[in-house]
């Protein structure tokens, strides 16, 4: 008899995701150098300058605040936080290593042992509870010196600096860490994101040159990992926005397809398939983009593709060619307002079914295991006098998205092996530099001005996620 019970695979990796620059704090302690995140202002000015040509390269306390500098002080509180993750039942924890905590200037000849020891302590604490670390090598944390002295990723020299960094952390931790990711949301560099390519936006030529250097650097890291241990798993990581054509106008469909393949597929095509796709080569030709590609680059990329594909999913995007259609105000990727979807407090359209579509599209296209490394609802949580937070809205969001994941696995045959919701503990938002935009299962008593006790409190969603993990997803139907 066929078992029609829908469930998640045995050994499915439930967990949570963070980034060093958003929750670690101690930005100037332990021998750490400054990163691009350390000069990124908090508040609404951050998003205004993220894709600009005049992104600030200095700390300017007279005009800005810098919530990242303190984060939630995971640097000093990691044992307490990891104990809470273990109580929830995490199977994995996605974290990043700050490059500048290992090589303060990025081009240093020797690593900072104090930084290496800190991450070893964190990894050992995770392993003590049976939590598998997943480490992102570069999560919007390029050392600031590499921007000032070399101009960011458009400079070929950063490939060698990254290779040294990747080799250092892989040699140090490869016996303790199986799962790695190279560059976080790499495809945001297509539009010139300062966080991604670590340079002020200079246009498509520089952006795609910077991305090429990251593709080479990613392949080098993958090569090193597999030489150390063929069983290590190295993944790429991109942001994915399921795209719809607003109507059946063929021009709209073509516009959607063009945007979809350059944003959602371009970087993945190269890192998973190991070669530049034909549509990208024609795009370069039509837009007078000439990449400086060294003799062995394409062979390296071809010979060392990633083992799995990881992506973040927060929203979908609807494309229209009709200028009279209302724009999706607040939607991070723009587009037209989708009349069938509601939006978060920050205007991000909520589309659980779009996650199932994304999983199906990616698995059918690439045929490699998938890892959802970010997903979640940024919302304003209002605790009562005892710091109880009834975040039923977050539970509903996660339940709907996880239900679509289950359908993708059991109805569509997708090989999905991990899910790490974003900001499993409250941290500083990357897009707005705010604490008030909260994602976590754990509330941190800290406001946008850095005021608060830093005490941790379990939200209602903490117990919900704990039960979900314990049942391996079966509690979705209870």
From TrEMBL:
It comes from Vagococcus allomyrinae. InterPro entries: GH (IPR017853), GH_1_N_CS (IPR033132), Glyco_hydro_1 (IPR001360), Glyco_hydro_1_AS (IPR018120). It comes from the Bacteria. This is Family 1 glycosylhydrolase. The active site is at 374 (nucleophile). One of its GO terms (cellular component) is cytosol. Belongs to the glycosyl hydrolase 1 family. The keyword Cell division does not apply. Keywords: Glycosidase, Hydrolase. GO terms for molecular function: beta-glucosidase activity. PROSITE patterns: GLYCOSYL_HYDROL_F1_1, GLYCOSYL_HYDROL_F1_2. SUPFAM superfamilies: (Trans)glycosidases. Pfam families: Glyco_hydro_1 (PF00232).
